[in-house]
Amino acid sequence: MDQIVLFVTLGFAVGAVYAVVASSLVAVHAATGVLNFAQGSIALWGVWVAAELGTTGTLVLPVGSIAVSDGPTSAAVAVAVGTLSSAVIALLTHLLVLRPLRSAPVLSQVVASVGVMLVIVSLVPLRFDVTGSVAPPILPAGTVEILGAAVAVSDLILVGLAVAIALLLAGWFRFTRWGMATRASAQDETAVMLTGYSPDRLAAVVWVATGAATGLVAIVASPTVGLDPLSYTFYVLPGLAAALLARLRSVLGACAAGLGIGIFQSLLLMMSTYDFWPTWAQAGFGETVPFLIVVIALFAFGKAMPARGGVVAMRMPTVRPPSMKPLPTLVLIGVAVAAVLLTDGSWRFGVVTSIIMSLIALSLVVLTGYLGQISLAAMAFAGTGGFVLSRVTTEYGIAFPWSLIGPALAATLLGVVVAVPALRIRGAHLAVVTLAAALAIESFVFGNPAFTPFEGNHIADPSLFGIDLAVRSGTDLTTVSFALMVLTVVAVLTWVTARLLAGRTGRAFLAVRSNERAAASAGIDVAATKLLGFALSAFLAGVGGCLIGYSRSQLSVESFNVLVGLTLLCTVYVAGITSIAGAVLAGLIAPLGVLAVILEGTLGVGEYYSLIAALALVITAVLNPVGITGSVREASTHLAHRRSSRADA
Fold first, then answer.
1. Local structure of residue 473 (DSSP, 8 states)
2. Which long-range contacts link 181-187 to residues 24+ away (Cβ below 8 Å)?
3. Dist CA 361 CA 384 (whole Å)
4. What is the pLDDT of residue 432?
5. Staple partner for 388: which of 270, 293, 407, 472, CB 3.0–4.6 Å?
């Protein structure tokens, strides 16, 4: 009994963080209608600001720093300034990013929120020394005995703090005039404006309060939970799971669910030490809990989730059916061949990586740009293809090109499984499911020693008709034969996809994207169309993952981590998520692609790549949602129209 109590209380610290994140998510959703994927990152910044103050006495800003004292500041000062910094970041997120997108499509709001998350994640390792840092103690040490187990006083304080914050937020919404006006604005902003309240100001108050609350609890919990440049960012997923269990309505319910998830994960950790627990479930199994909760909650309560009554709605970016004209297509292929032949070393590797990434980017264009389904799991599908490729080439000896088929079909099957929730939910809720699925797959499959050896997953080199297609030969980092093989595979799949999107399949995708009910009334099987879209997208990503595997010769969990997938989403959205040309451009600016080589090899600023990509995503989402290729297309159309008008005159 004492061991159970001990592990229950060990889950208090992280459960308190989950609880305050969940409470904040419910509050922000009530005020703005936005699911804030950056809530954990807002806390992350405050945690590192407080830790730096408590260690060196320096206040680190996004640009520059201020020496507050000659040595470490007091815990009270560090906590206060760190909490204030989280509140300021939250307010800036509202004012500069999400308020301008109040009436924008859900896709724009989701990618902007993800962009803010990535900006902060990219800034932390650039502004702080994240190697070996330890948060100084804040709460009093000592233990108390509960049912025979020694329970840390700090853990009890954290639970009390999380519950107190939830009570304050719930009381503010229920008993104050501003809180009741905020709840009313979630139903009808126009009516609230007519009563003299500003929905923007009401939302700003909630953003500041939740930013400060999340930062405060995360800072106080950091000596127990630990300092990490990434983990707090993805605490948003257990928080989202808890918020969804509370139907995005009850702050107190979300708080209780967050504490429960933290405790349950701790109990799973205890069970993993028992002999009866299977070996394959000893690593990463706890990270699948948020995914399972999200799926169950959305299936059970999906249609009961509150929607916000907006003033006006902007349309999704327009889509034009692709036309693979022979001459431009041949010119593009010729340019790619020339780039392969005229480069070597890291430059040719960057060209090949860009070609591969354009295929994975195309999978996002199909699923999100054409079908309108927001997916954050593209690299999970790609990783599935890559890891299965390792098995089929090393254990079963299947040769290229047949070695691509099995892994791509495995990725397709996973895509269909992830697509099942899309039959009931859409929009930001689907983004939550796919992000949770991506993290669960990364932790439980890719990062599980039972499935992935510590030395990595080796992949046999490809060959065809006696021609060696291996990526390396002697000192040659990337061979011409391998590069041309990659170009051929990507070109063929891109052409086939373009033909599908230009035909009945593409028209069905666009109909579902525009209005599912209207599509169904026109005789389109919406469920089958969604499953087909996910299957096609996952197949393309799976083949892309295989090509990444061949280009690396071995794979590890870092090859397909979630941050790489989110960064790729940045590049696709910036390039233009509604066109094949956008996928090609996204490949050029994708991670480890041509742009990354230029930043690293020519300009020497490669460490800023992720930050640049994230900032570009936020700016594009706010100012230019059609992306670069969309802007070029609109400009060319406008110019052609002006020339035609002048000719008629």
1. B
2. 182/30, 182/31, 182/206, 183/30, 185/31, 186/29, 186/30, 186/31, 186/33, 186/306, 186/308, 186/309, 187/308, 187/309
3. 16
4. 84
5. 407
The domain 347-604: what is its CATH number?
A: 1.10.3470
Q: Are 404 and 392 in contact (CB under 8 A)?
A: no
CA 154 to mean position of chain CA atoms: 32
Kindly state the greatest CA–CA separation across the chain: 92
Whether the per-residue pLDDT at 308 is higher than 80: the answer is no
Q: Was domain 2-277 assigned CATH 1.10.3470?
A: yes
Q: Which two tokens stand for residue 308?
A: 């916000």
Contacts of 335 (CB under 8 A, 6+ apart): none
Q: In whole angstroms, how far apart are CA 96 and each of 90, 99, 466, 645?
A: 10, 7, 58, 38
Strand pairing category for 149-152 and 554-555: unpaired
Helix (H, G, I), strand (E, B) or coil at 111: helix
415 has a pLDDT exceeding 70: yes
Predicted confidence (pLDDT) at residue 313 exceeds the cutoff of 80 = no
Closest Cα partner for 117 from 179, 45, 37, 60? 37
Statement: residue 247 has pLDDT above 90: no
Give the dihedral of Cα atoms 69, 74, 75, 79; nearest 10 deg: -50
Residue 564 is predicted with a pLDDT of: 85
pLDDT at 310 over 50: no
Residue 270 CB neighbours (<10 A)? 16
Residue with tokens 């000893």: 282
Nearest to 211 by CA among 47, 78, 82, 90: 90
What pairs with residue 66 in β-bridges?
59
pLDDT the model gives residue 159: 93
One-letter identity of residue 237? L
Contact between 43 and 214 under an 8 Å Cβ cutoff? The reply is yes
Rg (CA), the chain: 25
DSSP β-bridge partners for residue 151 = 144
Which of 422-425's residues contact partners 24+ apart within 8 Å by CB, and which partners?
422/373, 422/530, 422/534, 423/527, 423/530, 423/531, 424/298, 424/299, 424/302, 424/303, 425/298, 425/302
pTM (two decimals): 0.88
| CA nearest to 378, candidates 451, 434, 452, 447 | 434
Task: Tell me whether domains 2-277 and 347-604 share a fold.
Answer: yes
pLDDT digit string, tens, across residues 534-563: 999 999 999 999 999 999 888 877 778 888
pLDDT of residue 212 exceeding 50, the answer is: yes
Q: What beta strand segments (E) does 242-291 contain?
A: none
Which is it for strands 467-468 and 463-464: parallel, antiparallel or unpaired? antiparallel
Q: What is the dihedral of CA 481, 487, 493, 498, to 10 degrees?
A: -160
> Angle of helix 236-245 relative to helix 39-56, nearest 10 degrees?
140
554 backbone dihedrals φ, ψ, rounded to 5°: -155, 155
Residue with tokens 């993290």: 439
Task: List the domain boundaries for the chain.
Answer: 2-277, 347-604
Helix axes 199-225, 39-56, angle to 10 degrees: 50
**Count of CB atoms situated within 10 Å of the CB of 84:** 18
